[in-house]
From TrEMBL:
Annotated organism of origin: Lederbergia citrisecunda
PANTHER family: UPF0750 MEMBRANE PROTEIN YITE, UPF0750 MEMBRANE PROTEIN YITT-RELATED
Annotated keywords: Cell membrane, Membrane, Transmembrane, Transmembrane helix
Membrane topology: Multi-pass membrane protein
Record's protein name: YitT family protein
Compartment list: Cell membrane
Any single Gene Ontology cellular-component annotation: plasma membrane
UniProt keyword annotation of Oxidoreductase present: no
This protein's record includes keyword RNA-binding: no
Residues that span the membrane, as ranges: 46-67, 79-97, 103-124
One Pfam entry name: YitT_membrane
């Protein structure tokens, strides 16, 4: 029971860091941290929905299919992560002022906090939602590399976002992906005691 409580505390913390990175450092410059974040920016741009709600809508479609492919435990934890991230963005983006010194510093800080947050989520058997879900579904069906599938999907969303909002976005988004991926890998490979109750593997048993 204690391990379960700790795992959910870490899940909430990781999701909070992910939301903080988006609301404070990335979204103010319309930089998507991934495909779902890119869709959220487009929904916000086209329809004027709040960013937190836009992120939830961008994830909701994929979460519908997650249960069948990944099981109830993984899907439930991912829903909690997405809800926490969306709530964090809704609160911080609209109610907490934050000074921006330079876009490069924001990209570095955003990539760092996003990478730490997602790394924690993966370690406790959850995910950040978004394009992870369709990428794993396509990869399992076609027997392709999940990482490559997700990279292609994200790049397509980045290109669309850059065409609609600003062409420089695709460059900033790729830089953010590169840096945050390195942080995620570092967090995931840290030699600390894993929570045995939760498996980092996504495939449903």
């Amino acid at each position: 029971m204690k391990k379960l409580i700790i795992s959910y505390i870490l899940l909430l913390f990781g999701a909070f860091l992910q939301g903080l990175s988006m609301s404070f450092f990335l979204f103010p410059h319309s930089i998507p941290s991934g495909g779902a974040a890119g869709l959220a920016l487009l929904v916000n741009h086209w329809f004027g929905f709040p960013l937190g709600l836009s992120l939830w809508l961008a994830n909701a479609v994929f979460l519908v299919f997650a249960y069948q492919y990944f099981g109830s435990s993984w899907t439930f934890r991912t829903i909690i992560a997405v809800a926490t991230t969306s709530t964090t963005i809704s609160i911080l983006a609209s109610q907490v002022p934050f000074p921006h010194v330079h876009i490069i510093l924001d990209i570095l800080a955003g990539s760092l906090f996003f990478g730490i947050g997602v790394g924690i989520l993966i370690r406790v058997g959850s995910s950040s939602g978004g394009m992870v879900i369709p990428a794993l579904m396509i990869a399992s069906y076609k027997n392709w590399s999940p990482g490559k599938v997700m990279m292609v999907i994200n790049l397509m969303v980045f290109l669309l976002t850059s065409l609609v909002i600003d062409y420089k976005i695709v460059v900033f988004a790729v830089i953010c992906q590169f840096l945050s991926t390195r942080v995620i890998d570092y967090i995931y490979e840290l030699r600390i005691h894993r929570i045995a109750l939760l498996s980092p593997y996504w495939r449903k048993k």
